[in-house]
Amino acid sequence: MDRRNLPAFGGWNPFRELARIENELNRLFTDVFPAQKDISEVQVWAPRVDIYEKDNNIVVEAEIPGAKKEDIEVKIKENNLVIRGEVKKEEEKKDENYYRSERFYGKFERVIPLPAEVKAEEAKAEVKDGILKVIIPKETSEKEIKVELK
Questions:
Q1: Domain assignment present for 30
Q2: Where do the CS domain residues begin and end (predicted)?
Q3: Could you say which DSSP state residue 24 is in?
Q4: Are 81 and 70 in contact (CB under 8 A)?
Q5: Which among 106, 95, 26 is positioned nearest to 71, based on CA atoms?
Q6: Which pLDDT tens digit goes with each residue over 19-73?
Q7: What pTM, to 2 d.p., does this model score?
Q8: Residue 53 contacts residue 138 (beta carbons within 8 Å)
Q9: Which residue, 15, 49, 58, 82, is most buried by CB atoms nearer than 10 A?
Q10: 3-state secondary structure at position 70
């Protein structure tokens, strides 16, 4: 096709076209899933974590806002930390008009490869202010072993 025959941008705005496409896709999802009011409600999520070393321990801190202690499970399997559980949605507020609901609810799972060999049986965990903190002692082994000559 000869580029000289293509129409110039003129009144065409690519950003307006993208917004139109987004609106069409939202309408399509609303038609296909009428019971679902907001596509963002169907999300799978995993807690965000910080992992660091302190005093010969591996420390993992995971954000799990709204989770109760009894709804969280922590395991160490094959040198991986497995965090799973569920954040339950509070009673639906039917009297209130929501403008946006972005908090995460539902089941979650996160498998975190640990950066060193650990003593899994000595691990400790606690939940406070929406943060799960897991402290796992590192496996200590001598870096240098003297071998006796015979």
A1: yes
A2: 44-150
A3: H
A4: no
A5: 106
A6: 888 878 877 777 666 555 444 444 567 899 999 999 999 999 999 998 889 999 9
A7: 0.62
A8: yes
A9: 58
A10: helix
